[in-house]
Amino acid sequence: MKTNKKFFMKRLVKLNKKLTYWMVFLTIGLVMFFSMYSNVKPAKLDVEQFSIAKETIRSPITIEDKEQTEKKRNEVVSQVKPQYVMKQEYAQNRVDLISSIFDSAIDLQNELVKNSGATETSDSPVSVPSENERLEWLKKKLTNTVNNDLSETTLKALVNHTKTDLSIAKDAAVTAVNKVMTERISANEVENAKKKVEDQIRYISLPQDLKNATIELGRYAIIQNEFYDPKATEELKKQASENVEPVRILQGQIIVEEGQLIDQEIYRQLQLLGLLDNNNSHLPFIGLLLFVLILLASIFSYFRGYKRQDQNQQKELLIFGTILIISFIIMKGISLIPIDNVDLAIIFPAAMCSMLIKILLNDRLGFIGTVILAASGAIIFNSQTSGPFHLIISLYILFSGLSGLFFLTNQNHRTKIFQAGLFVALVNIVVIVAMLFIPNSKFSGIHYLFYVVMAIFSGVLSSVLTIGLLPFFEAGFGILSTMKLIELSNPNHPLLKKILTDAPGTYHHSVMVANLAEGACEAIGANGLLARVASYYHDIGKTKRPSFFIENQMNMSNPHDRLTPEQSRDIIIAHTTEGAEILKAHRMPKEIVDVALQHHGTSFLKFFYHKAKEMGKDVSENDFRYPGPKPQTKEIAVISIADSVEAAVRSMANPTMEKIEQLVKNIIKDKLNDGQLSDCDLTFKELTIIEKTLLETLHGIFHNRIEYPEIKNER
């Protein structure tokens, strides 16, 4: 029954941790979503057609105006001239036609000469058939179309003249026709082309009737050779249409100015932009939800990818989420300040988030936080721009946050944090000036100065808020930050002054242990600074009865000589619990309280046990052991070893490196055999490194000194 109850409680605790884990994620996601909700919500305008605009309206997006684009394309297409093609072969065809007509007439003359027996070179008339017979012979040689198209007068002139005249007429006609037909002749230019042929033939030296016949043949040969090409015309129209750039309404473009009449075209553009749509569009909210999920995924991947104890994981996530939420609240508050023509986003302390996360957690989470803020800032501050994203501010936040990570050193004194803020301010100035210069912005000198002042204010405010919020995080989450450790290491701390005043031997012992423990912890990758500071306070319990501890017994008798072994045991053992109580009373960090309580673990007080045995008392070893618990962390285990080593070496009469080396080996071996290191995760390899590092440090302390000769006084 008890087993089931215990199992159930473990499951309940585990479920509660998981629920807390996811609740933190949900809270971060909700804060992100609702901080950007109003910035992506589509603006709805209550305007009517032909009314007067009450404010200047700009386009929130870039969108194609398809109606205007189509209208522009139609105008361009309508201006495309019809395309015509010239039939080159028509010129040769018409020349061949005229040549064949004259050749037929010349063939007739050759036939007449052959039949009459006259010589071919004779120009004298020969005895020929009658004119009608010659005319009929010629018509048979020609086609019906030609016979019908040509006049009787022209045909008679061809059959009544000699071969020489016909050859001259042929050459004149062919030349004129070829010259005119090689030029473009459209339907309405045919008559002009015929006139050109007629003019060229008119001045040829021929008998008048043959000249007239040649002119008629030339005019007959001229026809239209340029025709409409629908395919080429359509191709040209298509090309012209494709070359038309789409008409776009650009982001930030003024649609209507204040006091201007909202005519039909303006009203149509407002409808196209969705500014008059009364139906709420869900697309921006879906997009915002996906955007937030992407940002949450970056956080989840970090905490998912590293193996940690659940408690530490939840603590880190809660710290990270709290810093992120505070940054979002500041960011949203700045974005709601109603100042026109001034980009107040520049004063946002972007480096605060990265510096706080670096101090309290680590650099990688600081980088993730900076990227999330930069991405979200592009939306939250979009009221200063006409689009959905303010990319200049996004880059500004990114560079500012990264500079905070870069310039903040591990020595996180308050002065160092403020110094990092000044460096961030310098980076802010460079970034914002670059962003203003690149687009060739035309601002006045006062305007530039104002932006520079805001950039400086952002850097300084980042450091001030970091310093101011750090104590709240340390107190609220019980965080032992680097800066807190440095403050606790200050010799002027009241508890350290108490140790120095009340137990100076213990103070010196603690400083020596701190030197040994810090080097050993750093060698194995543990927190060396924590080990050093915790070592300062680990024996604070000895301040209650300092004289009962050997390091404080100078020039005095040992009070344990007057006490029973049991009394001595109780006083010695009590310094761990009493030290823890003192540290708790001063609200010291839990890590340091644990060191005071655990640095002796359950180790055995051999001296007083053997003293009791020698006195004949019936005692057991368990009666002379510290109550524990055993060291739970690497740092406490190293401090435990260093504490024993320092005390043992200090008690050696003539320490040599060989003796010290053997002593360190024996102490580590005894702690292992006694099970004092069983609850921490030290490996044997790390123990070897610890041993080597302790010896190196001790060698530096107990190095051989030059023995100077004694100078005798000769007097």
Automatic annotation (TrEMBL):
HD/PDEase domain sequence ranges: 502-657
Top-level lineage group: Bacteria
Keywords recorded for this protein, A-Z: Membrane, Transmembrane, Transmembrane helix
Transmembrane residue ranges: 21-40, 285-305, 317-338, 366-383, 389-408, 420-438, 450-473
InterPro entries, alphabetized: HD/PDEase_dom, HD_domain, HDIG_dom, Metal-dep_PHydrolase_7TM_extra, Metal-dep_PHydrolase_7TM_intra, PgpH_phosphodiesterase
PANTHER family for the chain: CYCLIC-DI-AMP PHOSPHODIESTERASE PGPH
The protein's name in its UniProt record: HD family phosphohydrolase
Higher taxonomy: Bacteria, Bacillati, Bacillota, Bacilli, Bacillales
